[in-house]
Specification:
Elements (H helix, E strand, L loop, with lengths): L4 H16 L4 H4 L1 H18 L16 H11 L4 H4 L3 H15 L7 H15 L18 E2 L1 H5 L7 E2 L3 H18 L9 H14 L6 E4 L6 H11 L3 E3 L9 H16 L6 E6 L8 H11 L8 H9 L2 H6 L6 H15 E7 L5 H8 L2 H4 L2 E4 L5 H11 L8 H29 L7 H117 L1
Parallel strand pairs: 3-6, 3-7, 4-5, 5-6
Antiparallel strand pairs: 1-2
Helix pairs in contact: 1-3, 3-4, 3-7, 4-6, 10-11, 19-20, 19-21
């Protein structure tokens, strides 16, 4: 049950009035107006069913914690930084309302309606209905910008996005020099998330619940934010053999580091993938709700840890007894230990966990990571295409625009898919980065293929040119050879003519020789015949002679 408005005005007016009493007289008149404006916005949200908890909007739980957080944000202001400028305080009020209420909202319709209520509350702060610079963008308050330039810490607005980007780029370069390199693109939405996380870490017991689909940049932006605020981040490494006792040991060491002197504030970051057992969230729920985990330490060890802070507690004005030392221990732990939960809204797990462990929603400041806008997609694509050699900047811009349009078109297709199939399909910023990476790899592969083809063509043309040169040389040699062949052919023809003539002569002589041979043969045959006749006659005559 919410207390009556009069009681709320009395409580918060006294708290805020005590803080503004240090400011100029003009700020004192703002106390009641700021409280009244906050209560109006708060009551509007409570009465509007749009902002009532539901299965999808289960975290729409607005109570006195939200009122207190707005007032706590206003109390981050300092007299020197706001001197004589009440409009800056009004702009701070708008900013804190947006951080406390708007960052919880999940849809553009809810955000538009909230801004209507915010303007109704704003009218309590000014004498006319005109919107002043309080609603001008950017409305971003930080404490690290002035520190970056060597000034004392002050929670003041950023002048513009380029100056904020310059500071964050310097911080990112510092981070990359001492930590594992993060290749972040600091577009406007990313810078706003960084400032929101820094604001949470800047508050005592400031715990963050970052909600967004995988690949939204929750972990990377948290690491950079913690580095900016001088906070060390601790994470568990969940392996197959990781047990609940390992988690307890880890948390014991984390608490010891958080309260030891000297030591930096610490942030414990846990993601969906690291929750091996739901029982892990029992510890987180206790830590978020009360600032400590009961029964985490054995009694003797806890007493020794508290006792080690005795002198420090006395020096800070705490009673010199065990209860005083324990109060100092718990206060220091709340101040120095922050929890960052990075969860995905996909499926039922987040809703079920929030119902089982209410500290996840009630004791954290929520920052909902919505999809990247078109301008951010183009900036990211342009950044990751910077190392790709393209013919002109116009072509690079056209490719970045096409990538953004493709990514946005998938979101439209996802909505149609949900209407037709009643099933969710999510396209995450990580998918967009994978698209860019795939394009770069495919472009490199195609270029390598084309270069290979060009080299093969060049080698072929070179070989063809060499062949043509060789052929030309062979043609010259052939001409010489043909001349020699013609000369030899002429000589051969002459020789053939000579041979033919001599052949004719030889043939004639052969004919004469044949005729002479025939004559000789005839004469020989006649002589032989006569010899035979003579022999025969002699044989016939011999008997007579005897």
């Amino acid at each position: 049950q919410t207390p009556p408005p009069d009681l709320l005005r009395t409580i918060y007016a006294q708290i805020l009035g005590a803080h503004l009493s240090q400011f100029d007289q003009v700020f004192h008149k703002l106390t009641d107006k700021l409280v009244e404006a906050t209560i109006i916005v708060f009551n509007k949200l409570l009465r509007d069913t749009t902002f009532s908890p539901s299965a999808r909007k289960f975290h729409y739980q607005f109570n006195l914690r939200e009122l207190s957080k707005v007032i706590e944000g206003l109390m981050l202001s300092t007299p020197a930084a706001y001197k004589g400028n009440p409009s800056k305080m009004i702009k701070l009020w708008v900013h804190e309302c947006k951080r406390v209420f708007e960052d919880r909202l999940i849809g553009p319709e809810d955000i538009l309606k909230f801004n209507e209520y915010l303007k109704e509350g704003y009218r309590q702060l000014v004498d006319d209905d005109k919107e002043s610079a309080a609603f001008a963008e950017p409305n971003i308050f930080t404490s690290f910008i002035v520190q970056h330039y060597g000034h004392d810490k002050a929670y003041v607005p950023a002048d513009d996005m380029p100056s904020l980007k310059k500071v964050l780029e310097d911080k990112l370069n510092e981070y990359n020099e001492v930590k594992a390199v993060m290749n972040l693109v600091l577009f406007n939405d990313a810078m706003e998330h960084i400032t929101r996380i820094c604001r949470i870490l800047d508050m005592p017991a400031g715990h963050a619940l970052l909600v967004g689909v995988g690949g939204s940049g929750k972990q990377s932006l948290s690491k950079l934010s913690a580095f900016i605020m001088g906070i060390d981040i601790d994470q568990i490494v969940v392996s197959q053999n990781f047990t609940i006792n390992d988690l307890k040991t880890f948390l014991q060491e984390l608490i010891k580091k958080s309260v030891k002197t000297p030591g930096n504030p610490r942030a414990f970051m846990m993601t969906d993938s690291q929750i091996k057992e739901e029982y892990y969230l029992v510890f987180m729920n206790d830590l978020l709700s009360s600032g400590f985990i009961p029964d985490l330490f054995p009694k003797e060890e806890l007493d020794g840890l508290i006792g080690s802070l005795r002198n420090e507690a006395k020096g800070n004005g705490y009673p010199d007894n065990f209860d005083g030392h324990k109060s100092y221990f718990l206060d220091k732990l709340k101040k120095n230990l922050h929890v960052i939960l990075a969860f995905s809204p996909v499926g039922e797990k987040f809703r079920v966990r929030a119902r089982k462990f209410p500290g996840i929603v009630n004791s954290t400041m929520i920052d909902w990571f919505h999809g990247w806008p078109k301008s951010a997609l183009i900036d990211v694509a342009d950044r990751f295409l910077s190392d790709v050699e393209l013919p002109s900047d116009e072509i690079k811009e056209a490719i970045a625009l096409n990538m953004a349009e493709c990514h946005i078109s998938i979101d439209v297709a996802n909505k149609r898919f949900l209407q037709l199939e009643r099933r969710y399909n999510y396209t995450t910023p990580k998918s967009f980065l994978e698209l860019i990476d795939f394009y770069k790899k495919l472009l490199t592969k195609k270029r390598e293929y084309i270069v290979d083809q060009i080299q093969r063509l060049e080698n072929g043309l070179l070989t063809l040119a060499q062949t043509q040169t060789q052929v030309k040389g062979l043609q010259e040699d052939l001409k010489e050879k043909m001349k020699q062949v013609e000369e030899e052919s002429r000589k051969t023809e002459q020789l053939i003519d000579k041979v033919m003539k001599e052949s004719e002569i030889a043939e004639a002589e052969s004919q004469v020789a044949n005729e002479q041979k025939n004559i000789v043969n005839a004469l020989t045959e006649a002589a032989n015949k006569k010899a035979e006749e003579a022999n025969k006659a002699l044989e016939e005559a011999l008997p007579a002679l005897e």
